[in-house]
Amino acid sequence: MAQKLPAKDVVIVGLGWTGSILSYELADAGLDVIAIERGPWRDTATSFPISYAQDELRYRIQHDMFLRPAQMTVTFRNKPSETALPVRHLGAFMLGNGVGGGGLHWNAETWRFLPSDFVLRSHLTERYGANFLPADMTVQDWGITWDEIEPHYDTFEYLCGTSGTAGNLKGKIQDGGNPFEGARSRPYPTPAQKQPFSHTLYAKAARELGYKPFPQPSGNLSQPYTNPLGVTLGQCTYCGYCEWFGCANYSKASPQTTILPALLRKPNFEARTECEVTRINLDRSGKRATGVTFVDTSGNEFEQPADLVILCAFQLFNVQLLLMSGIGQPYDPNTGQGQIGRNFTHQTMSGVIGFFDKDKFNFNPFVASGAIGMCIDEFNGDNFDHGPLGFVGGGYLGQVQTNGRPIETTPLPPGTPAWGAKWKQALRDNYLSAVTATSGVHGSMYSYRDNYFDLDPTYKDRFGRPLLRMTMDFHDNELKMSAYLTDKFAEIVQKMGAKQVVKHVRKGPYDVTQYQTSHLCGGAIMGGDPKSSAINKYLQSWDVPNLFVQGATAFPQNAGYNPTGTVGALAYWSAAAIRSQYLKNPGPLVHA
Amino acid sequence: MRNAGAITGATLTAATLLATVVCAAGIDPQNSPQIGRGRYLTVVGDCAGCHTLPGSGKDFAGGRAIETPFGTLLGANITPDPDTGIGAWTDDEFVNALTKGTGRNGTHLYPAMPYTYLTKVSRDDALAIRAYLNTVPAVHNAVRANQLPFPFNIRASLTGWDALFFKPGTFHPVAGKSAEWNRGAYLAEGLAHCGMCHTPKNTLGGDKADEKLQGYALEGWFAPNITNDKRVGVGGWSVDEIAAYLKTGHNRTSAASGPMSEMVTLSTSQMTEADLHAIAIYIKDQPGPAPKAPPTADAAVMRMGKSIYADECSACHGSDGKGTTAMFPAINGAAVVQQADASSLMRVVLRGARSAGTAGAPTAPAMPAFGWLLSDDQVAAVLTYARNAWGNAAPPVSAGDVTKARKDLVERSD
Amino acid sequence: MALCIAPALARAATIKGGLPWFPGAGDPPTPVRPGPWLFFTADEAAAVEALVDRLIPADELTPGGKDVGCAVFIDRQLAGPQGRYEARYMSGPFQTGTKQQGDQSPLTASQHYRQALAALDRACRDKYGDKAFAQLADAQKDQVITGLEKGSFKLDGAESSEFFKLLLKDTQNGFFADPIYGANKDMAAWKMIGFPGTHYDYRDWVERHNQRVTLPTVSMTSHPDWSQ
Q: Which residue of A has its CA nearest to C173?
């Protein structure tokens, strides 16, 4: 029998980026807020201090700070005709667990999407005609415009202290920045990071080929910074233990380094850690959330009543909770009906390895940060003419080599044996002089009818609830795009002076064992019409108006950029709508 | 006032209030400016620091352990409860407690209650504090304050102690000093009792009057020298930097941690800018000791310390030791690093520390613990290096010092 | 010195009013200590030492896999939660899937090693005149390993190439991991490739393009330049 707790104004499920942003905004509005987080408390000096944060085996290889599949996982299959099997060990994506969520151990690559990304179907149809898109591609417009979201990108960047060079200031193109970016209202809060050798060499080669390279926007700060909440971050020291790791010197933007110190000073906020929300509770009408049920580590069940429920549990678990709580209609790929679970996308990653003369080139790959990089955007989105190419989508091409950690940095020329004396020699000869840019092409993935989520019929979690089932495969469009972009990328690396460039093009089928970023998107997408979306433009559930669903669940398709900047911007946009409209007049904010 | 039967706590409090109104001149329970002033003054005096048990939610109800060189005392219950608090005291008894060190019926208070400093508080201010304390919820909590071992538990001995070390009397402004200086002196020498922690004590626990504010070891920390000495005091800080430190717990070079962190969060961060500025002006006018050349550090130890510093410390504190403003304290030129007594340094390196989080500086960055990684030799070397690099000069730390500190810290829970 | 996260924070906790703090809190790694095998039997250990010594042969670049500690590394891992796959989802039903669906075996790493090493021993004795793997000549050892890699050297009771993949990954992970875990002795692997180790501050180096970093090689607990 669940023990009923005293009611709160707001219950927030998950205390990662969006959970922290929404907690702060709503506590600041004077509401009584409780955040419930499945994983443990994590903090710099006690969880990843400078004396042992630099442990590749523990954190990168053995996934020490991530969600353990034993606690929760998903099942996976490529096609609806297959049987989905459990992801017993994480591979293709990594799932955060604990306060800070993925925001604690991300790279901090902080991008904005393009204005055209938000109106993708309209834009592509207008330019190329409706027949240009594959029949089973289900991309949509987001229901939000660039002008609406731009101020909130700004807010998130100024929260984080993002280091970068503006490319388009109020419509005026700026030298050294991304000439393709949407017009921004202000420069970045701190200047771009310094770039190591291979990155500057890449930029030089790109320029020689006629491109306009620019530094990757980075949440590893180039200088100390105090954000509008009064929280201070330090200067990044290029340690090369960034993504997959916590930052030991407060220089990577995370909920810990940007929000939590200010949030925990608020007397009207509390967090419960190591408590797992198992259900969003609804009243008898099914149209109003009454709160959540959660379980602590002893198995005790609690009910947390609240007037407002904000779902911030990361894309996958947002979808799982919606399905398990009976909110909205589950998607059926055969009929195309139902909004919950459809338009699941990931990212289409590819790249190259460039081998250089070791007597002439020393790249010191271990001198790096998680978001270091020089990039070009000529082949992202619809920045180039797709007409003759026969595909849509694109991505940035960057030398974004973020580490030289020895277990994972093993540049071996093709034909090198996998073990033995020659293996050792090849590593000795190439470790310092290779450009291992196997994720240098950061391609989009658009949405399709048969890439989706539902609940697994067989496999259960430790409470006996069904695991989320993931059906996902690459389509020809993305594979064509990957081949094209990888060729372009290889040209630039060749121009750097490589003696050999080996392409690593993305090939199907989608493989759940190969890491391809953790940028999982969709499943409860936003839009202007409840017939084709699960949440409205403010991330408010069409079905349950006192429920808001944050995160990349909202993306109708994924763009050729890292999504966290957009996730943060949408969180601020949604929070602003809750504060200025919903709280004054609770109910649907959009009448369809 | 003991009453049997059906009188509830609330009624009792009201009756107590009435009683005090009848007894006192100078306190009016409806005088909200006086009560507000009194509340501010309890913040300045950090009364909660000894009289509120942390985490209890019962303000001023006593029971907090206060460590003294002679043993432990417990802070008294100063809520208006008539049986276990001070509800039944007259105003004169209250004022005498603060300014003469006498409790009810003339019992001697231990100077852990800083009456040697509070004696300077004006009667007006003392009554304002009383007026405020009258309004806090009465808590029934019997505290046996005297936990000292024999013979220190014999209060009568305090008469002799007072004769040696207590100079009663209210504050008199010093002619020739500005009004601001005098306000700062009134606060620092009186209610804020800075010297209680920062002035060295003799073996009997009395202040060493000729070493005012030159540092004192207590509770496993070393409260540093806060005279205007450039190397070991606050001579390198401007008046504004002192005020910023008190207001936010951080400034260009320093971060408050340990007991000072609590002091900042409970007391100084909630004081007015004017009062903090006044205290800073007064502090900047306190002379330091005559400079002494410390012994030069051993070259091999410095080499070892430098290597350890480069690998474990420089990523936050900088290879130049200058840290990051309001974030990572400076070590280069820092007075707190060059105190004769290195207790605070050893403690922070061995078990880590969180710095103060205040409204003005909420980040509260923390030092991680290195005790698991570094041997006593290595801690001694890196601290000796920190104390003598970049123009710093302070006595070396020995491995034996660290061994002893490690042992002492096992007993401490915070 | 044993350290633990304060019990209140290691289990379901309510956090409010400020950032939690406990002195000495943290969870540093436990160093592997030399000593008797914790998982392998003597025969298994002999086989694994021989295997890792061929996967990483001794030469002028580094000592062999055995002397550099790879067998010790694997032993300690298999004896602990990693070997028991405690973090993995190990509920059934177990079904064979596609390559893209990943490992669906019900065996933990420890069980896999145990089975495969027993099968390897049987297979070697069958083919090489009752000799265990460790007793073979180097050329024969390499033949066996190549056969496992390709799947042509069949093991009865285990899948050759699956075992090879597991063994190779563990050997190479140990080789390049921090020496605190038992291998990469004296940071030999890091020195071989030119990785200077666990330094955390490269601000002085980031713009020194195309220059060799001259910092001493250090690990979490090994800093040879610290000694007087």
A: A407
Are residues A250 and A233 in contact, defined by beta-carbon separation less than 8 angstroms?
yes
- Which residues of chain B neighbour C23 with C-beta distances below 8 Å? 351-353, 369, 409, 412-414
One pLDDT digit (tens) per residue for chain A, 592 residues: 799 999 999 999 999 999 999 999 999 999 999 999 999 999 999 999 999 999 999 999 999 999 999 999 999 999 999 999 999 999 999 999 999 999 999 999 999 999 999 999 999 999 999 999 999 999 999 999 999 999 999 999 999 999 999 999 999 999 999 999 999 999 999 999 999 999 999 999 999 999 999 999 999 999 999 999 999 999 999 999 999 999 999 999 999 999 999 999 999 999 999 999 999 999 999 999 999 999 998 889 999 999 999 999 999 999 999 999 999 999 999 999 999 999 999 999 999 999 999 999 999 999 999 999 999 999 999 999 999 999 999 999 999 999 999 999 999 999 999 999 999 999 999 999 999 999 999 999 999 999 999 999 999 999 999 999 999 999 999 999 999 999 999 999 999 999 999 999 999 999 999 999 999 999 999 999 999 999 999 999 999 999 999 999 999 999 999 999 999 999 999 999 999 999 999 999 999 7
Domain positions in chain C are 42-84+106-192
| d(CA B249, nearest CA chain C) in Å | 15
**Number of Cβ atoms within 10 Å of the Cβ of C18:** 14
Say whether A269 and C16 touch across the interface (CB within 8 A).
yes
Which of the residue ranges A513-522, B157-166, B205-214, C200-209 would you say has the lowest mean pLDDT?
B157-166
Residues of chain A in contact with residue B357, where contact means CB-CB under 8 angstroms, are 261, 265
Q: Which CATH class is domain B179-284?
A: mainly alpha
Across the interface, of B357, B365, B373, the residue whose CB is closest to A51 is B373
Domains and CATH numbers, chain A: 3-582 (3.50.50.60)
> What's the number of CA atoms in the CB half-sphere (13 Å) around residue B213?
20
Q: Is B181 touching A (CB cutoff 8 A)?
A: no
Pairing of strands A33-36, A269-273: parallel
**Residue from the list C15, C103, C178 with its beta carbon closest to the beta carbon of A273:** C15
Contacts of A237 in chain B (CB under 8 A): 315
- A462 with A86: CB under 8 angstroms? no
Q: Where are the alpha helices (DSSP H) in B46-178?
A: 48-51, 91-100, 115-118, 123-133, 158-165
- Gap between the Cα atoms of C219 and C199, Å rounded: 8
Distance between first and last Cα of chain C? 24
- Closest-CA residue of chain C to B309: C226
- A123 has catalytic annotation: no
- Those residues whose C-beta lies under 8 Å from the C-beta of residue A566, and which sit 6 or more positions away, are A111, A112, A113, A149, A153, A552, A555, A559
Given a contact cutoff of 8 angstroms between Cβ atoms, the answer to whether A172 and A187 are in contact is no
Question: Do residue A54 and residue C54 have CB atoms under 8 angstroms apart?
Answer: no
CA distance A49 to chain B (A): 6
Q: Which residues of C touch A261 (CB under 8 A)?
A: 19
Strand partners, A398: A375
Tell me the domain boundaries of chain B. Answer: 9-147+154-165, 179-284, 299-410
The matching CATH number, chosen from 1.10.760.10, 1.10.10.60, 2.115.10.20, 3.30.70.260, for B299-410 is 1.10.760.10
C209: nearest CB among A45, A197, A271: A197
Q: Which of A63, A504, A519, A591 is catalytic?
A: A519
B367 → closest Cβ in A45, A234, A261: A45
Instruction: Give the start-end residues of each E strand in A224-345.
Output: 225-226, 232-233, 269-273, 276-282, 289-295, 301-311
Q: How many CB contacts within 8 angstroms connect chain A with chain B?
A: 70
Domains B179-284 and B299-410 in one fold: yes
ipTM, interface predicted TM-score of the complex: 0.95
A46 to B365: CB separation less than 8 angstroms, yes or no: no
